[in-house]
Amino acid sequence: MSDGDGCCSPAGGWSSGLCQCCESPFGDSCSMTCDCRNECHDCVDGCPVCCACFFPSVVYGHNVKQLSPEEAFCGGNCCGACLLHYCFSAVLPSLVASVCVVPIPCHWCIMMQTRKSIRNRYEIRETCNDCCTTFFCQCCVLLQEGRELKKRGYSPP
Prior knowledge:
single chain; 157 residues; mainly alpha; 7 helices
């Protein structure tokens, strides 16, 4: 299925398009009744769009816990991956801003590797540049990866 953005195709491509954000990776559609007081996966399962936009580190951790340590930084460790993503998204840019004046988000550095690992695992060809998609479309990338992992199964190789 293609969403017209050229970033997915049935043969050798992602199972869903990059811009199909409201298509929940953990259910049929986005449920706007999210109870985030429970474990992190409850928030991701309940409303992945909200979670990816406001708490991308949680969604990143949720995705990476399904990968092996060889495939992603902190693979198999939700909390470690969540903390790593937060450091690259908030802490490191703050340090860079103290030197360069401009805070530059660095989340894409680790997300590129994760995206490449998922593509390699499922033999998905790169149709959109991983660097650009992870830098400019972080929420959509996290949700697309979550849908892919859910559809194809979570078991590490």
